[in-house]
Design goal:
Distance between the termini: 58 Å
Radius of gyration: 21 Å
Largest sheet: 6 strands, mixed, barrel
Structural class: alpha+beta
Strand content: 15-25%
Strand order of the largest sheet: 1-5-2-4-3-6
Low-confidence stretches: 1-23, 183-188
Number of domains: 2
Shape: globular
Mean pLDDT: 85
Length: 227
């Protein structure tokens, strides 16, 4: 401590400044395919085993979605850093990269971003839990916040809760600027255009699934867009 104070004082006397360490800015990753998995379809089935040991979890999936206790997600190697923390506006949860996903890897090699989110390990899982995972999976691709700030909104509702599938704990219509307003954030919401066959469902109009958009438009990050 004393040596640090001497160096700082010397810098002031010499008229120089010491480098300031600032927090890295958040950024938005858009157009990410989102799926879900749990103990019934984990590898091996019936376990919470993960590929990486993050946060002292000893290679076990878990979490509730807070900044300090993030929910596990799996993806392709290299798509995110091992144990990297991200924020999912679709779920209003913090997630951490703790596992490997084979399908995500195949998609990533084809240029498709994909993450798989953990739903839990409970005794009453099985096929009902897998059906819940399918119900939670959005038709539209979603956005994620890298290097998210602490204190973003969190929904602590468990996605799969002892036989209950909480699909209401998902949020399709969001603006990424509400979660990342610094450098690298996403653009302002697009303008809802007119002139398509189904007015109000043209390019830039809000949507929640693929069949919410007119013509051959697709629902991407909550808005109709060209495929």
């Amino acid at each position: 401590m004393q040596q640090h104070l001497i160096v700082s004082a010397a810098a002031v006397l010499l008229g120089t400044s010491l480098p300031l360490i600032s927090a890295q800015q958040c950024s938005v990753v858009s157009n990410v395919r989102v799926t879900f998995f749990g103990s019934p379809d984990n590898d091996p089935p019936g376990t919470a085993n993960t590929a990486y040991n993050c946060g002292g979890r000893n290679y076990q999936a878990g979490g509730v979605g807070t900044y300090d206790n993030p929910l596990t997600f799996a993806t392709a190697p290299g798509e995110y850093e091992t144990c990297e923390l991200v924020y999912a506006p679709y779920l209003r949860k913090y997630l951490r990269h703790e596992d490997y996903c084979q399908t995500c890897t195949e998609n990533w090699q084809s240029g498709i971003a994909h993450i798989d989110v953990w739903t839990g390990i409970v005794a009453d899982g099985g096929q009902a839990q897998i059906e819940c995972e399918n119900a939670l999976t959005p038709d539209a691709n979603q956005a994620f916040i890298r290097n998210p700030a602490r204190g973003l909104p969190v929904d602590l509702t468990a996605l799969w809760d002892f036989g209950t599938c909480n699909t209401q704990a998902t949020y399709l219509n969001y603006n990424t600027r509400d979660y990342c307003s610094g450098g690298g954030s996403g653009p302002n919401p697009p303008t809802c255009q007119t002139g398509c066959e189904w007015e109000g469902h043209c390019i830039g109009c809000p949507c929640s699934s693929w069949d919410d958009c007119s013509d051959d438009f697709t629902c991407t990050n909550g808005f109709c867009a060209r495929p």
